[in-house]
Amino acid sequence: MLSYDWIALIITLLGTMFLIGELLVNMRGLFGLIGLGFITVYFSSYLSTDMFIVMMLVYFLGIALMIIDGKLINDGTLAMIGGATTILAVGLSAPNWVAGLYSIIGVILGGAASLLFLRVFKRRKMWTKITLVDQLSSEMGYNSLKESYQNLVGQTGVAMTDMRPVGTIQVDQEEYSAVTNGTWISKGDDVTVVSVDGTKILVKKLEDNETFTSS
Q1: Which positions ≥6 away from 15 have C-beta within 8 Å?
Q2: pLDDT tens-digit series, residues 137-192
Q3: Which residues have C-beta within 8 Å of that of residue 72, sequence separation ≥ 6?
Q4: Cα separation of 146 and 196, whole Å?
Q5: Domain range annotation of the chain
Q6: Are 176 and 168 in contact (CB under 8 A)?
């Protein structure tokens, strides 16, 4: 079906756009089915039955990694690996480098285009931690929230999740989303709040020679 190499760009763009769109917005599987149709056309046009199955599995492994990141980890690492996996699957499936390049460009453009769905349809809650898209306004109590966050500077607490580098901490029996300065902190480690920028809380691991003062 893909008699011209450039058609691969259109097919992978639409397939990726609808599949990732299904992850971003709640369309009850409709976008997923449309995206699956386009991706099936792409792989079946270029590959034998055996390789078709293999590359479909590799492609959807990438999609699965994005889902796992959105639901469980929320730091973007697996999502990036998943994106690279989908690119690898379509690129290796192409019959020549031109079609492969078109396919890779299609995946990249499709992923970017899927973000447009966020402006139109109801977004899934699973991505709120990773995208931080909630609008913080004075009507929502943002000013008082910002002031309370400023009071956290210098306080100590406990990492409630692994921080790689984003995670959750507990200070004075309250839980907050926080980030480290590029270092990894394990769940259960004592931490101290270094600075607060708006609602962004920067923490570091509490060293053994420092005093733990959190209540």
Answers
A1: 35, 36, 37, 38, 39, 41, 42, 106, 110
A2: 444 444 555 566 788 888 999 999 998 888 899 998 888 989 998 888 999 999 99
A3: none
A4: 9
A5: 7-131, 138-205
A6: yes
Q: Are 61 and 85 in contact (CB under 8 A)?
A: yes
Report yes or no: 65 and 86 within 8 Å, Cβ to Cβ: no
pLDDT at 136 over 50: no
Instruction: Classify domain 138-205 by CATH number.
Output: 2.40.50.140
Please give the torsion angle defined by the CA atoms of residues 33, 82, 90 and 1, in that order, rounded to the nearest 10 degrees. Answer: 0
β-strand pairing of 200-205 with 174-180: parallel
| Contact status, residue 198 vs residue 215, Cβ threshold 8 Å | no
Tell me the whole-structure pTM to 2 decimals: 0.55
To which residue do tokens 């034998």 refer?
48
φ/ψ bin of 182: left (φ > 0), alpha (ψ from -120 to 50), beta (otherwise): left
